[in-house]
Amino acid sequence: MTLSIEIIRYSIDTLTAEIVERYAKNNDISLTDALKLFMKTKTFDLLCDSESFLFLESAEYVYDMLEAEIEENMERWLEV
Predict the structure, then answer these.
(1) How far apart are CA 22 and CA 53, in angstroms?
(2) What is the pTM for the complete model shown?
(3) What's the number of domains the chain is made of?
């Protein structure tokens, strides 16, 4: 099965929205600030790299990666 670029983009956008909303709520910050923070992370870079297939994972999985990266726990980030 081949995924179209539209499906990949939709998956990335949907995951980004879910993760940003959750991060903003959990940290009592604005959606804009949460998005700015997320877009500066390695997790976001990996999510946007279609060859990583991270866009096929759950929002929970990607959020766990984000938390590990923010905590600077790269060992945990790599495990997730």
Answers:
(1) 22
(2) 0.90
(3) 1
State which residues form the domain around 63.
5-79
Q: Given phi > 0 = left and psi -120 to 50 = alpha, else beta, which region is 72?
A: left
Angle at 78 between CA 34 and CA 80, to 5 degrees: 70
Q: State the number of CA atoms in the 13 A half-sphere of 42 facing the CB.
A: 12
Q: Is the CB of residue 80 less than 8 Å from the CB of residue 68?
A: yes
Length in residues, the chain: 80
Judge whether residue 14 has pLDDT over 70.
yes
Query: In the predicted model, is pLDDT for residue 1 greater than 80?
Result: no
20 versus 78: the higher-pLDDT residue is: 20
